[in-house]
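[User] At your convenience, examine this fold.
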Amino acid sequence: MNKILVAYFSCGGDTAMVAKQLARVANADLFAIKPVVPYTEADLDWHDKNSRTSVEMRTQEAPEIADKVENMDEYQTVFVGFPIWWYLAPTIINGFLKSYDFSGKTVIPFATSGGSELGKAETVLQTKTSRETNWLPGKLINGDVTLDDMRDWIKELGI
């Protein structure tokens, strides 16, 4: 049996909403990736080059993650969701991927964005796991997504 995890990072709630729908349709467990120190509105101000997120993205320093997936070895498939920041995944996602051994697992990224594409997010994320990780193509999910849309995507992936 293919046990599935949907792990996600969300600040504004859009990625959380998509992750919950995906977990429901995929009959998957859900895990919220949260920093030890939560982001404030000022931290998220991408117009301010000295805001916390601007500095993290520039230096590629990942914040410490509050919780761990205790039973990661039980999952064969892991969806990883995040908002697009500067055409990349937030650095907390890099930290999440580096925290576990994904060898032999299938990892599928998904992202939300107000207007950006996935950019080079997938390529960069693939460097954060071992070569033995099976990466499937990611999906950018903007706007209203239905449960049928999620079911169709999962069928396309062969999961």
